[in-house]
User: Fold FAD/NAD(P)-binding domain-containing protein from Aaosphaeria arxii CBS 175.79.
Amino acid sequence: MQRVSSVIIIGAGLGGLACAIECRRQGLNVLLLLYQMQVHIVVGAGIQIPPNGSRILQRFGLLPKISDRATVVERIDVRRYEDGQMLCSKEQTLSSIENYGAPWFVIHRQDYHGILLEEATRLGAAIRLGASVKNILTDRDTVVLEDGTELTANAIIGADGIWSVTREILLERSAPPIETGDLAYRATFTRADLEALKDSRVDELCAQNSVTLWMGPNKHVVFYPLRNGAEFNMVLLRPDDLPEGVKTAHGELGEMRATFEGWDPVLLKLISCIPSVLKWKLLHHEELQTWTKKHVALLGDACHPTLPYQAQGAAMAVEDGAVLGVLLGKLKSAPDSTGARLHSSGDSTDSVTSMLKIYEDQRKQRTTLNVQGALRNRWFYHMVDGEEQQNRDRFLRAVTDWEAVKSPYTWADAQYNRDLLGYDSIAPAEHAFDSWFLENS
Ligand SMILES: Cc1cc2nc3c(=O)[nH]c(=O)nc-3n(C[C@H](O)[C@H](O)[C@H](O)COP(=O)(O)OP(=O)(O)OC[C@H]3O[C@@H](n4cnc5c(N)ncnc54)[C@H](O)[C@@H]3O)c2cc1C
Assistant:
């Protein structure tokens, strides 16, 4: 019998790396498997790190490094699509820290990924490149690679993203993600591109450390600075017209511009600078019946991919990774008075299986709420002009104290945001471990 000491993590995205960092902090041996030959392949440019995500980075001691590269979001500005009229401007710098316990950042994905990767390797996580997973033998805690290599560990974590192979092996069926009906155009600009426009409203927009959101019928646009305002990120969301099964495609600039015809002239000026664009089909998944099987568990987009309309997919993946690491670490360090039950014996009631079940219990409801919240935000952002939209806009203009808002618009509801953004994922997981330990010792 073997005490839990080793973890294989399939996938080195943000969730897999967070899991690797926490596992190493807990003294577990970690092997990250990546099917590419390079670890630095990161898709997309900008990403928001909401306070619940930066709380985990704070735990890892990484906030100074993140702060060096990221911008603290000072405001979230919501504008009407056709004229850019401000519907509301939510202060964030202070409120994120006071109400949610950590800052809200925007950062280049490469910088974020690089910081987590550097930390995982500094702590001693091993990485195997070109390791494409073919199968997992759940009865033998073994990962089989395409080249036939077999790798064994006490726990195997599928952090392999939206097209997860681990998910299908674990569920023993095909379980592809589902189309949401929306797609994203993703683009970046340099400050020089935007300054060349010589437009005072564009300059004003670039001078702010804000996330700006234009809401319109069936579409919305998100814009924010990266790398201290040297670059800017834009994501344009609209109904999906990619053929079924096509995940990404190069976008036609003319088509993209036509899609946003009649929108705020400032936004159109920004769009006119986009030199090339990628069309990205947005997918999600219904709640899986389970995330675990014996000593195998899923995390992040592998088990709860979502529309990005709460800016939470990666934050949830990072929370998942940290919770898994904490639970496995607590199991590793627990006094050995419980004998075989604290060991990894491979039967369905052993301790590693129990840890992964506790992890699933801790995480499933929260991440399902996130998927649903993102869908609710689609309704909120994409209202067509009419009474419903007028009510929404009137409501947003009237808010004076965001911390007192009670509203069916979850985007604005103070308690909803405290639960989403102020959540400490670690303390309840530790508590769940302690209860389990008491019962089993
Ligand atoms: C337009 C858009 C905007 C978004 N904005 C935000 C935002 O602002 N904030 C936020 O928190 N989230 C955002 N998200 C969501 C976020 O990008 C994802 O939820 C997050 O990256 C998921 O992380 P992950 O580690 O679970 O998966 P991934 O980042 O997809 O990583 C999966 C890893 O697994 C590897 N892999 C895959 N298959 C295998 C295999 N068979 N063997 C070995 N390795 C494998 C991949 O190479 C990759 O390294 C956005 C998403 C989109 C589409």
Q: What stands out?
A: Residues 40 and 114 are 7 Å apart (CA to CA). The chain has a mean pLDDT of 93. Residues 10-16, 33-36, 47-48, 132-133, 159-162, 165, 184, 186, 235, 280, 300-302, 308, 311-315, 317 surround flavin-adenine dinucleotide (CB under 6 Å).
